[in-house]
Amino acid sequence: MHDEMILQSKPAATPQSDQVRTSLRRRVRLGESLIQIMLFLCGAVSILTTIGIVYELGKESLNFFTRQLWEDTNKQIVADLPAATALLEVGEGGRTLRSGDVIQLGDEAMRIVDADGRSITVDRGVQDSTPVAHKAGTDIFLSNRVSLVAFFTETKWNPQIGQFGIWPLLNSTLMTSLMAMLVALPLGLGAAIYLSEYASPRARSMLKPILEILAGVPTVVYGYFALMFVTPLLRSIFGVDVVEIYNTASAGLVIGVLTLPLVSSMSEDALSAVPRSLREAAYGLGATKFETAVKVVVPAALSGITAAFIVAISRAIGETMIVAIAAGAGSAFTFNPFKAAETMTGHIVRISGGDLSYDSIDYNSIFAIGLMLFFMTLGLNILSQRIVQRFREVYE
Amino acid sequence: MSNHSGFVQNLPKRHSAARTWQIIFQASTTIGIVVLAALLFNVVNQAFGLVAIESKIDPASLAVNDVSLRDLSKEQLTQILQEHVSTGLFRRLENDMGFEQRSRENVYALVLERVVEEHVVETWTLYDSLFRRDEVFARVAEKYPKARVEFVSWIDSKFVSSPQSSDAQKAGVRTAIFGSLWTITITIAFAFPLGVGAAIYLEEYARDNWLNRIIRTNINNLAGVPSIIYGMLGLAIFVRALEPLSSGGIFGLVDPTTANGRTVFSAGFTLGLLTLPLIIINGQEAIRAVSNALRQASYGLGATQWQTIWHHVLPNALPGILTGTILAISRAIGETAPLVVVGASTFITVDPSGPFSKFTTLPIQIYQWTARPQGEFRNIAAAAIMVLLGLLLSLNAGAVLLRNRYSRRV
Fold this sequence. Notes:
The structure holds 2 protein chains of 2 kinds. Chain A is an alpha+beta fold. Chain A has 3 domains: 38 residues; 77 residues, Elongation Factor Tu (Ef-tu), domain 3; 231 residues, Orthogonal Bundle (MetI-like fold). Chain A is built from 14 helices and 8 strands. Chain A is extended. Chain B is mainly alpha-helical. Chain B folds into 2 domains: 106 residues, no CATH class; 236 residues, MetI-like fold (Orthogonal Bundle). A 3-stranded antiparallel sheet of chain B has the order 2-1-3, sandwiched between helices. The longest helix of chain B has 46 residues. Chains A and B meet through helix 3, helix 5, helix 6, helix 7 and helix 8 of A and helix 1, helix 8, helix 9, helix 10 and helix 12 of B.
């Protein structure tokens, strides 16, 4: 009834021109704004992901570096210790205690103020513990924390027994990556030059999809290939005694194959972007095709090629399944590529593959490794973007 | 004109250098093909071949009155079973299911499993099986005189349809295929709408301000983060922090066999986060490729921005978006490391039944079988690789078909 009235009255009450004028005003469309906000939120998920990565990795790494381990000193107190006494008598043998050390008896933590042979003065009940009486013969535990200095300088990694040097893992990561780059950089650049400068359109249309297939093979299949094909090959070339079944060389070589398509396709894009006129000019001066390619086109595309190299390095550092399958388990600090050595990513996979309990030292330690891995790859990726932005030659 | 003669003298050297380098460049391109061929050869080589099978008791010796084991009646088979296994085991089998109710086939299978106890003692590759047949038979005759040699195709219909087993000959990839499909379904449901939405925002709405610049740079950087880092994110967020949600607890759907949040749900969302940047970047490119004239025409007819996007931009960009999505999904299907970290099960024989089940996927299965020292598990790993590659190949073929079909129409 009401609607009808409006419908009837509308044409009569407002003339045509008036209606047009009102509809020309900028209308607020609630639905449209809502859609825009929803779409923005979709984009914002990527920021949340980054924040999530940094927060979670950072939080667990912080736990790793602030967590306290209690090591058995093989020392006991010799006399009963009342709750209020600050002087305690310890037995012979075991580790020497120094002033400044934090020790634990039962559930109570104490800080040593002065250590004089067997009699030790302590601050009772530090670190939120309450002073209680202890019986003679109670074991003394010494506090040990993971220090950043030890993390970056020591060469043994075994969190279970208190060895926290990242170097064995980092070293084998660098070794496999270096090995991979020895394969991927020259071959990838060579392939890129061939595809962009030499190949006929027909050859290109056949070769490029094959390289794309190579890039699309799952890494676990490459891992299988490394273990079942490349390792036996290396063993038959260098000898079974020299090359271990699990070794960083075969993992590195196969990572090189994996990153080859990445290098070649990014470099080829850079080479193809160099304008024709530069090549024509070089030919005009009497240069051969090779001289044109190497002395004119490659230098002109150098920023793109460098970016490709850096992205490939970052990819090689983060590669996981190939090293998890072919490089071996157990950290080892070795420069011999034919020996087994676990990389950072390989270690994370092995540790988390078992039943990992939260808040254990292993759980926290893989996050510390993950954070380092994240910053290494992020740094390399940002570097490659910067290089492209800053050094790109712009041809008009 | 000493300069000129020097130039001429140099020519042959320069030309031969040019030729040599051309060959080198060509060779480096060919190496990719050679490696791909070697990889495929290696997989096929392992997936077929001769095996030597030894049995604890020769089936021929079990024949009754010259009737071979295969043709014996159920009663005779039951008797053989009773004679050869311990009374305890026989009673347990009887308790599981009375022998009156069991079929003849069932009892026959029990006899094979418990009495004959066939097991693989050694396997050979396809190459050895074809070209070194004599050596293989000589070795078997010398080392395993009781064994029989058989040609086995590790990949067959039984391999695809049977569940995981601790016996390599019986193991299959059905649970893994279902796990992969469940995971990928969740990944698509999560990442596709979100990724396309973000791509539309960045291409159609976003102004050039600091926030949008950060989002853009951030997406590019996320695409370069190693996949294992996503696994750790998934472990910390989906498995641990959101455990009530990811284990189905808040819906009252907790699977009694599911330990904490290590479910299909967590895996799917982890892979979703991983594929999101790829879908966004591909989607942006597809949307950018839509001609601006189309948008202007739509605006000219009085359409709003969303109407323009929904009715004109998206339909034209869709083939590109779908192609990009399929490529991202095929990357997710092959992804292993993040799922190991999120906590794929090492051994399950039950098909996952929903988002809150325990799971394993094809690549995880390949990884675990490869990590085992026994030769026959390497063989079934190769067979599983063939299944995985087949799946990926058909997906990619789908993407190519889609691209060709729509690019002709537009």
